[in-house]
Amino acid sequence: MKKQIRLLGVDDAPFSFDDRVVSVIGVVMRGGEYVESVLKRQATIDGTDATDICIEMIESTRHRKQLKALMLDGVSLGGFNVVDIEKILNKTNLPVITLTRDLPDFQQIEVALKQHFKDWDERLMIMTRGQLHQVKTKHNPIYVKCAGIKIDEAKEIIKLSTIRGVIPEPIRMAHIIASGITRGESHGKA
Length: 190
What we know:
Blueprint: E1 6-12, E2 21-30, E3 34-44, H1 50-60, E4 67-73, E5 76-77, E6 81-82, H2 85-92, E7 96-100, H3 106-116, H4 120-128, E8 133-135, E9 142-147, H5 151-161, H6 169-183
Helix pairs in contact: 1-2, 3-4
């Protein structure tokens, strides 16, 4: 795999549940070394537009033809605005990789979804669909889901695009930018 493959990393900005929308930042990078573009959209907090926002980011970037994968920090943006990675793959033909530092507690997630959403079962189904892989790193393991790409290839992309720590640079940069534009200065872990 080429070291300079183009990847789109996406993360949401910090938000309050009193807010109606949250900024969503996409960063197109060559591997983990070179930022080529920054994209910004807004998602409804706890809404249902996160998947369409990711699709629109992919389809609208001038780097679309060179993108090799979409990388997401988790499987939702703006609270429980769940991203359907299979729908993104089907609409764009771009592989999708989600990463999280912590093993999701789907029992707790189900309880929270039931308390707040009439469509809780659909959101939970999207979140739990597909295999969750534990991926070892030099530090702590991360948890990865893939659509349109084998886990071995996803691991190679993660390794290629991670400079320090465990989070690939496209996601880390999206996090830093999202946090900085919201709080005035970035902080916190991606």
